[in-house]
Amino acid sequence: MTSTAVSESAFHSLSPLEPLIDKCVHCGFCLSTCPSYLLLGNEMDSPRGRIYMMKAGVESRPEMNVMSDAIVAHFGLIHSSRVRQVQRLADFIEATVPRDEVLIVAGDFNDWAERLDAPMRANGLHRAIVPGDPAARFNTFPSRMPMFSMDRIYARGLRCRTTSVPRGAAWARMSDHLPLLAELERA
After folding, report:
1. For site-directed labelling of 158, which of 34, 66, 105, 106 has its Cα 20 to 30 A away?
2. Which of 15, 123, 113, 103 is nearest to 59 (CA)?
């Protein structure tokens, strides 16, 4: 788990890196030049999703008023394993993240049968999806012909304004999963 509660002035020190922030495709292969890594100094702070937040900080946009804890997850292939992982995740959150703090949990949940939303909700995490949008609209796997909504963003204390999955050959070449993007705001 990582905390993004850094001072806004820390983002202003990244202003010279703004051209790199604009070019980043969130692959994680460029730690020595990665704005996330340069700011936070921890490889476990995933660049995915942080670039937008850093750009908002450099530009002093109001999104910076919502700081969060973030957990990046990669769940197993067997459903019973995923259920145990949800419980371990819930135990970890209970032990480390204050109940009143905003929280984001994102990653590859390998939940092709769409069975994890209920146990995640039972633990206070709601899937970041615009009400009324079908989950299949956000299929991310496999990247060349997405058929499953394997990647998810769950949140506590935030609501989803928009969700999208960039498509195209360039995105498909970067990974076997397409990125899932969500714009969240305080609930």
Report:
1. 34
2. 15
3-state SS of 113-176 is CCCCHHHHHHCCCEECCCCCCCHHHHCCECCCCCCECCEEEEEECEEEEEEECCCCHHHHHHCC
In the chain, where are the structural domains located?
2-64, 68-186
Fold category of 68-186 in CATH: Deoxyribonuclease I; Chain A (3.60.10)
Amino acid (one-letter) located at 110: N
The pairing of beta strand 69-74 with beta strand 181-186: unpaired
* Alpha carbon 113 to its chain's center: 21
d(CA 35, CA 50): 9
Q: Using one digit for the tens of pLDDT, what is the confidence trace for 42-98? A: 554 555 455 666 666 666 665 555 556 788 899 999 999 999 999 999 999 998 888
HEC string of 51-120?
A: HHHHHHHHCCCHHHHCCCEEEEEECCCCHHHHHHHHHHHHHHHHHHCCCCCCEEEEEECCCCCCCCHHHH
Structure confidence at residue 83 (pLDDT): 94
